[in-house]
Amino acid sequence: MSDLTLDIAHLLAGLLVLVSFLLLYQDRLYALLNVYALHALVLALSVAWQAYAQDAPQLYITAALALLFKAIVIPVALHRMIVKLGIQREIETVGGIGLTVLLGVGLVALAMVVTLRATAGADLLAREDLAFALAVVLLGLLMMVTRRNAVSQVVGFMSLENGLVLAATGAKGMPFVVEISVAFSILIAFIVIGIFLFRIRERFDTVDIAALDKYRGEHG
Amino acid sequence: MSLDPVILMLAIPAVAAVVIALLPGGRLSAYVNAGAAFLTLLAGLSLLWASQHRAGPYLLVDDFNTILIVLITFVGFTTSVFSANYVTYELDTGRVTPTFLRFYHALYQALMLAFNLALLSNNMGVLWVAIELATLITVVMVGIYRTHGAIEAAWKYFILASVGIALALFGTILVYMAAEPAIGVGLNAMVWTDLVAHAASLQPAMLNLAFVFLLLGYGTKVGLFPLHAWLPDAHAEGPTPITAVLSGLLLNVALYALLRCKMLVTGNPEALAPGPLMMAMGLVSLLFGAFMLYRRRDIKRLFAYSSIEHMGLVTFAFGLGGPLANFAGLLHMILHSLTKSAIFFAVGDISQVKGSQKIAEMGGLTKTNPLLGWGLVIGVAAIAGLPPLGIFTSEFLTVSATVERLPWLALPLVLGILVAVGALFMQLNRIAFGEPKGANHKAKCSYLPMFVHLALVLAAGIYLPPVLVALFEAVAKLLG
Hints:
Chain A is mainly α. Chain A has helices at residues 3-24, 29-54, 59-85, 97-118, 124-146, 150-170, 177-198, 209-216.
C-alpha cells in the first residue's frame, strides 16, 4: 500500500476525531445538527477511501448509506422535529464546556495509548484507524454523559456509532460490515422515531419551552 | 419428512409474528401466541432427544446452548400462557385495546425469535445482531403503555442499552482483528467454534481489549453494577409478562453471550484471565442489589433489584470457574430464571388484584387470596435460597466452591446473600401477612404457570436426575 493511500486514510480518520471535538463544544441544537452532518460526511469519505484502499466494493454501500441517511435524512428529520415539538434550542451541559473538552483530550490520548499498544501485531492502516475510531467512540460517550437533553444525547450516540463504523471498515475484510451498518441505521431510525412518538420534549420535563422562547423573542 | 428443529425454532416465531400481525387481534392473538410458543418449546425439547450437535458458519448446537434453549423456550411458553390470561383481563377492564394485543403478541414472537437466534448463533456478528434485535423489541415493550413513567423508563433503557450494544460491537470488531492474522480474512474469523479452536494463536493484547468491551457491552444487558441503571425502571413500567421475560430470559441470554466471549479469552494462555473481572463485577452487583432491596416501595422494583443480585451471583460463580463453580452457576442461572418468572407471575396477578404496584397498599395477601399469597411466599422463600428449594443447592455449591478456592471472598458473598434474605423476608412480611390492606378486585388469576415453575424448583432442590447432572457436568467442563 502506498504512503499516500495511508496518509489520506489517516487524514480522514483524524478529521473525524476533530469534528467530534467540534460536536463537544456546540451550545445550540441547530449548529450541533449541522456539525453532525459534517461528521457523517467525513465518515462517508473515510469509508469510501477505505473501500478504494482495500479494494472492497461492498464498503461503498456503507459509505453511500452514511452520506444519504446520516448526513442528510437524519439531520433534516431532527431539525423538523425540533421545530415541530418545540424543543428547547440551547443545550444544557453538565460541567463547563472547557472541562469537557479537556476531558476529551485526555480520552483521545487514552485511546491512542491503549490501541497502539494492544495492536502491535496488526497492519498499520487498521491500527491507526482503530485508534482514531476508539477516540471517536469515547468522545461520543463523553458527549452523551455531559448533555442533558435528549436530542443532543442522540447526536452523541450517533457520533459514537460513526466511530464504530470507522473501526469496522478499518478491519480488513471483516464480514457483516455492511449488514451491521444497516442494522445500526435501523437502530438510529428507531431512536429518532422514538423521540417523535414518545414526544420526549426534554429528558427532564421542567422548563416551559414556549414561554422561554417568547420571552427571548425567538422564532424558527 | 424430517424437519430440522433448529430451523423450526427460528421459523415458528418468525411465521407466528407475521400471522399475529395479520390477524384481527384481541383474544385470538393471545391464543395463537401461546400455541406458537408451545410449538417452539417442542422444537427446543427435540434437541434433547436426538443429539443434534453441529457447528456451521452461522448456527451452533452444543450441550451448553441446548440446556439454555430448553429453558428459554419453556419459560417463553409458560409466560405466554400467563400473558394470555393477564392481557385478557386488561382487555376486559379496558386498559388496552384489541389492536394493542395484536401489536404486543407480534412483538412477543419476534422477541422469542431474537432469543433463539442469539442462543443458536455460532457467529459473533449474528450474536450481536440478535441481541440488538432483542433490545429494540424490549424497549418498545417496556414503553408500550405510553404513560409518562413508561416512556421515561423506555428511554433510559434505550440509551443505556444502545451504549452497551455499541461497546459490544467494538469488542466484536476487536475480536475479528485479533483473529484475522491467525485465521485469515473473511467469515471464519467471526465463527465462534473456529475462534475457540485457534484461541491460543489470537493476538493476546487485542483480545484483552476486546474482552473489556464485550464485558461492558453485554454486561449492560446482564444488569451488572454499575451498568444496571436501566433495569429497575424497565422492570417496573412494562407489562408484567414482559417483566418476567426480562428477568427470566433476556438477562440469561446476555449472560450466555458474555460466557461465550469468556470461553474464547480463556482459551488464550497469554491473554488476561477474564475470571477476576467477572468475579469483581458479580460480587459488587450482588452486594449492591442486596442492600437496595431494603428501601423499595414498588413490588416490581423490589424483585428487579433481586434480579441484579442473582445475576451478580451467577456472574461471580462463572468468574470463579472450575467444574464445581460452573456447575453451580449454570444451575443457579436456570433456577433463578424459573423462580423469578414464577414470582413475576404472582406479582402480575397481585398488582391486578390490588390495582397498584405499591407495597404500602398491599397486606395480608395470604388471608384474602390464599393461593396467590402462598405462591408468592414459596417463590420468595425459593429466591432467598431456603432449603429444600433448588436455589439453596446452587447457592450452597457456589459458596463451598468459593471457600475452597478463595476463602476471603466467601465473606462478602455470604454477607450479600444474607442481607438479601433479610430484606426479602421483611418485605414479604408486609405484603403477604398481617392485616389485609388495599383494594381487592376480582382478577382472574392464572396459578398453573406459577406453580409449575415452583414445583420444578422444588424438585431440583430435592432430586436432580443423574442424566441432568451428567449434562450439567459436561457443560461445566466446556465452560472451563
